[in-house]
Amino acid sequence: MIKVMLVDDHEMVRLGVSSYLSIQDDIEVIAEAENGRIGYEKALEYKPDVILMDLVMDEMDGIEATKLILNDWTEAKIIIVTSFIDDEKVYPAIEAGAAGYLLKTSSASEIADAIRSTHRGERVLEPEVTGMMMERLTKKNDPVLHDELTNRESEILLLISEGKSNQEIADELFITLKTVKTHVSNILSKLEVEDRTQAAIYAFKHGIVK
């Protein structure tokens, strides 16, 4: 079973999503929270496989909660589910480390499929969000920077693009977690990007990953 936690300040939203997920054979809602602060506390307590996180909430918003959760539990997989599609919300959420970004207009089945995909280590972005990210990177008119990567760094970039965590990369390549972190830092620096998500988008944009 994929264990899921819902974080949303609207009880009816939580009820609707929870009701649909409860009839799925492979998904179980194990916790709910009405704001980011409680969501942060429950995330560390219950350690769900996937967290559905709203953005705008009292006490602590979804971006801050995402940052705190990932700071204390780096393996967390968080999908932002919100009504907002503007730059001021999308980019901070992605940069905070969210594994996915969906709109609340998504159907219940689309949300369930996103949970499964994220649990497999894949990234799930609303098509409009993907387009925005691509446009943002294109505007930078960046040169071909990946030629500067070593063979090992190129190998790790491919695994990052597959949604692998640092620990999963370390296990697959039989190297230490510290070594992976060093390579990831070098990759971000050489590609002149801010985070793993932008590195993955760079890889797709330049045809490194098909």
From TrEMBL:
Q: Does the keyword Oxidoreductase apply?
A: no
* Keyword set includes Transcription: yes
HTH luxR-type domain ranges (all copies): 142-207
User: Organism's domain of life?
Assistant: Bacteria
Q: Which residues form the Response regulatory domain?
A: 3-119
Q: Which PROSITE patterns match?
A: HTH_LUXR_1, HTH_LUXR_2, RESPONSE_REGULATORY
Please give one Gene Ontology molecular function term for this protein: DNA binding
Sequence positions bearing 4-aspartylphosphate: 54
Gene Ontology BP, a term: regulation of DNA-templated transcription
Q: Which InterPro entries match?
A: CheY-like_superfamily (IPR011006), NreC/VraR/RcsB-like_REC (IPR058245), Sig_transdc_resp-reg_C-effctor (IPR016032), Sig_transdc_resp-reg_receiver (IPR001789), Tscrpt_reg_LuxR_C (IPR000792), WalR-like (IPR039420)
A Pfam cross-reference name? GerE
Keywords associated with the record = DNA-binding, Phosphoprotein, Transcription, Transcription regulation
- Matching PANTHER family: TRANSCRIPTIONAL REGULATORY PROTEIN YDFI, TWO-COMPONENT RESPONSE REGULATOR
| Full protein name | Response regulator transcription factor
| Source organism per UniProt | Vagococcus zengguangii
